[in-house]
Amino acid sequence: MQPEKGHEEQICYESYFFSVREKARYCVQGMLMIGMISYLFYQSWIAFLLLLPLLRFYFKQKHRDCAEKRIIRLVDDFKSFLEVFSSNLQAGYSVENAIEESYKDIAVMSDREADLMLELRRMINGLRNNVDISDMICQFAQRSRVEEIIDFSGVFRTAKRSGGNMNTMIRQCSDLIHDKMEVRSEIRTVTAEKQLECRLMTYIPFGIMFYINLTTPGYFCILYHNLTGIVIMTVCLAVYLVAVYLSGRLVRIEV
Fold first, then answer.
1. Which of 27, 109, 140, 159 is a Cys-bridge partner for 169, taking CB atoms 3.0 to 4.6 Å apart?
2. Quick check: 101 and 89 in contact, CB under 8 A?
3. What is the predicted pLDDT for the residue at 14?
4. pTM
5. Would you state the pLDDT for residue 232?
6. Please, are residues 143 and 122 in contact by the beta-carbon 8 Å criterion?
């Protein structure tokens, strides 16, 4: 299986570009959320128009979430690559051939347009043009800004220059990095439940207000279309948004 020509663009994995479909979806979601807030808290179209700038913050949060998911996918794919790469080194392949064989093995079970696959194709094409493999791995590590990939690139460069038993050094490094990545994966699994609970708690106040409006029409009418009610509902909304922000920070554990 011959790798295709990789993209030459400089990828920053901490950035993410929405597709047209994603922009439309998140725009609809954000406007629905703003519409729900303006109805439940103010019952006013003017409030909807005044709250539209919140759509920008919604897009920013979604952008961050998508970028984090992209990095997590990259880390998981790199963990699989290390396993295959280490096995190929043990089988007697040179480093260069081990990378190409690892690409072939991973291509069978991975998305060919995944970020790691694009990076491997870039490396293989570089090798065919006599580009130093350690330089390409270091460039990949700098783009990813992932600690494990940076550690691997440092060990790889040192082993390449020292002329020692590169296969043994890389295999030992791969085992250590694999163990570290397993710990991170377990931490993400443990915190995933709390993050789900946090997302559910975010929508519960809206559910309660909608239920009261549905079963007891007019219950909140005293708070609508008058200055005192607007101030009270605005304070409640501000407290709610701060609580959502703090809860998101509490369950977001950097690993």
1. 159
2. no
3. 52
4. 0.72
5. 92
6. no
